[in-house]
TrEMBL record:
Binding site for S-adenosyl-L-methionine: 47, 89, 140, 210
Subunit structure: Monomer and homodimer.
Binding site residues for [4Fe-4S] cluster 1: 41, 45, 48
Reaction(s) this enzyme catalyzes, per UniProt: GTP + AH2 + S-adenosyl-L-methionine = (8S)-3',8-cyclo-7,8-dihydroguanosine 5'-triphosphate + 5'-deoxyadenosine + L-methionine + A + H(+)
InterPro entries: Aldolase_TIM (IPR013785), Elp3/MiaA/NifB-like_rSAM (IPR006638), MoaA (IPR013483), MoaA-like (IPR040064), MoaA_twitch (IPR010505), MoCo_biosynth_MoaA/MoaC (IPR050105), rSAM (IPR007197), rSAM_sf (IPR058240)
Protein name: GTP 3',8-cyclase
Entry binding sites for [4Fe-4S] cluster 2: 274, 277, 291
Cofactor(s) demanded: [4Fe-4S] cluster
Function: Catalyzes the cyclization of GTP to (8S)-3',8-cyclo-7,8-dihydroguanosine 5'-triphosphate.
Keywords attached to this entry: 4Fe-4S, GTP-binding, Iron, Iron-sulfur, Lyase, Metal-binding, Molybdenum cofactor biosynthesis, Nucleotide-binding, S-adenosyl-L-methionine
């Protein structure tokens, strides 16, 4: 489980114009790099991980600090990447995370470095991470109800996650953005979560659940839609549509009670955003992915470890992105979820 069935060799570059950037056949250019650095996690969110966690990646298959730093440098300096986000699994599970951040910051000092985390244990590391060069964090928090959190994540760690969010804010990793996946179990607590974020000066974004859970329980008919959430929030807050704050960002935003505070919704299933996608992804074991939902991966680790120089790695990366497909088709009949699940790709 978790590993894609299809792995291709060299991607075709047929018809590709001569440009250094990560262009695809549909005219999109990837500027936003997501680097997953581990499959391990301190939580077991039901929409993501199986109860027992993901199969462990053997240590020798994980990219090392030096390899990650080299690839991030290549992406920024040669391929036009403008922002790098570390994810997982849970990035805080890597004890060398501070070295990864410091190494990248040294090599690409002007590039924003961000992290997506569940916040558990962040309380003790936020200052060090900020000092190493981390700029921003997105923290995943689906509810502020302790029992509901424990049920959804299968771990009773709400206090630690909340302490982590506050520590991140105090360490200057602000504005802290909160991500909440829309689940039926937590929908009734959505307004409380928004109120908590307003009180703590965090920006909240809800995300429609995607068919990337390891337990394969996702069902289109059962998922909570953005429209349902708007109804629930509308009972407590006055929401005014405010469009998208960034054209390539999939979140649509609403002013809360006239603003300036906003709430965002990423309607990943019901309102497709693939046309403006600007992502490129690297898995913890060094595979390149052009899309969350793709089952095509390109083995950058093998190329790296067999002595490829930067020019060869760049060609492989450009080819992987040139072959990106138009979109995920979740809403289409016959949609098949990818073998690799969210925890093994990195959201
Ligand atoms: N452990 C970190 C965290 O939870 O933030 C980083 C990895 S997690 C896979 C990245 C993001 O993916 C989180 O915001 C999480 O809520 C989201 N995610 C996981 N499974 C999802 C799913 N099936 N649908 C939508 N979002 C999902
Ligand atoms: Fe872990 Fe993040 Fe997946 Fe939750 S969403 S199980 S915190 S990787």
């Amino acid at each position: 489980m978790g590993i894609p069935a299809v792995r291709s060799g060299r991607p075709s570059l047929d018809g590709r114009p001569d440009t250094p950037f990560l262009l695809d056949r549909f005219g999109r250019v990837a500027r936003d790099l997501r680097v997953s650095i581990t499959e391990k996690c301190s939580l077991r969110c039901t929409y993501c991980m199986p109860e027992e966690g993901l199969p462990a990646i053997p240590q020798h298959e994980l990219l090392t600090v030096e390899e990650i730093v080299r690839l991030v440098r290549l992406a920024v300096r040669e391929l036009g990447v403008q922002e790098v986000r570390f994810t997982g699994g849970e990035p805080l599970m890597r004890r060398d995370l501070e070295r990864i951040i410091a190494g990248c910051h040294e090599q690409v000092p002007g590039t924003p470095l961000a992290m997506t985390t569940n916040g558990v244990g962040l309380e003790h590391r936020a200052r060090g991470l900020a000092a190493a060069g981390l700029h921003r964090v997105n923290v995943s928090l689906d509810t502020v109800d302790r029992a509901g959190y424990a049920e959804l994540t299968r771990r009773d760690r709400l206090d630690s996650a909340l302490a982590g969010i506050r520590a991140a804010r105090d360490a200057g990793l602000a504005p802290v953005k909160i991500n909440a996946v829309l689940m039926r179990e937590t929908l009734s607590g959505a307004a409380d979560l928004l109120q908590w974020c307003l009180d703590e000066e965090c920006t909240l974004r809800f995300i429609e659940e995607m068919p990337l859970d390891a337990d394969h329980e996702w069902a289109r008919a059962n998922m909570v839609t953005a429209a349902e959430l708007l109804d629930v929030l509308g009972e407590r807050f006055e929401l005014t549509a405010a469009g998208r704050d960034d054209p390539s960002a999939p979140a649509e935003t609403w002013l809360v009670d006239g603003g300036p505070a906003t709430v965002g919704i990423i309607a990943s299933v019901t309102r497709k955003f693939c046309d403006t996608c600007d992502r490129t992804r690297l898995t913890a074991d060094g595979m390149l992915r052009s899309c969350l939902f793709s089952d095509q991966e390109y083995d950058l680790r093998q190329a790296l470890r067999s002595g490829a120089d930067d020019a060869e790695l760049a060609t492989l990366w450009r080819g992987a992105m040139w072959n990106k497909w138009a979109g995920h088709g979740i809403d289409a009949e016959g949609f098949v979820p990818p073998e690799r699940t969210m925890g093994a790709i990195g959201g």
